[in-house]
Design brief:
Blueprint: E1 3-6, H1 34-43, E2 47-53, H2 55-58, H3 64-80, E3 87-91, H4 107-116, E4 124-127, H5 130-138, E5 142-146, H6 151-158, E6 176-178, H7 181-188
Parallel strand pairs: 1-2, 1-4, 2-3, 4-5, 5-6
The protein binds magnesium ion (MG) and zinc ion (ZN).
Length: 189
């Protein structure tokens, strides 16, 4: 089974303004066609796992319970649209905590691979920020940047980057760039 890792904010749902945080369900809005994209990926036989940095918990802006509520509703809404999220992994830590899970570190990917028996070199990772791409590259996944969320800012970062895929090299371009999750999905199907 092929696995796709999806970043959450900026890929599935809109980033709040000014690099803010989704603190509760009422602040969560799906990016157009994201639910349809996940349904089509599910229908194509992909296992879909969300990996998301949620340092707002470590910063005290919302609680782990708030996040669980957001995720259960997100998974339910995607389910109503016909899509399946197999698992959600999140890093709740403050950036200064030095944890092993906050992207660009690949801790969440490695844990998911262990728990779901995933061959990471055969997996895809779709994200809107350079740290998503770097985390995927560190484990040898195929990486797609989407231009929703912070993706355009990331794109400008990559204009001068090398087209390489070295581990621990954060100046590497993603393998492909798409307008949004749905156009990435069309390519994957
Ligand atoms: Mg993001
Ligand atoms: Zn962490």
């Amino acid at each position: 089974m092929k696995t796709i890792f999806l970043d959450r904010d900026g890929v599935i749902n809109h980033n709040p303004p000014n690099k803010g945080y989704v603190r509760k369900w009422s602040e969560f809005t799906f990016i157009p066609n994201a639910r349809r994209a996940i349904r089509e990926l599910t229908e194509s036989g992909y296992r879909i796992i969300v990996i998301t940095n949620q340092s707002g918990i470590g910063r005290g802006l919302y609680s782990e319970e708030d996040l669980m509520d957001i995720h259960s509703r997100m998974v339910a809404e995607i389910g109503k649209a016909g899509g399946t999220i197999d698992a959600v992994y999140y890093c709740p830590h403050h950036p200064d905590a030095g944890c092993e899970c906050r992207k660009p570190k690949p801790g969440m990917l490695i844990r998911a691979a262990r728990e779901h028996n995933i061959e990471l070199s055969n997996a895809y990772l779709i994200g809107d920020w350079t740290t998503d791409i770097e985390a995927g590259q560190r484990v040898g996944a195929t990486t797609f940047l989407v231009l929703t969320g912070l993706g355009q800012e990331s794109y400008y970062h990559y204009i001068n980057a090398k087209p390489c895929r070295h581990a621990d090299e954060n100046e590497c371009r993603p393998d492909k760039i798409f307008a949004n999750l749905y156009t990435a999905t069309r390519w994957l199907r």
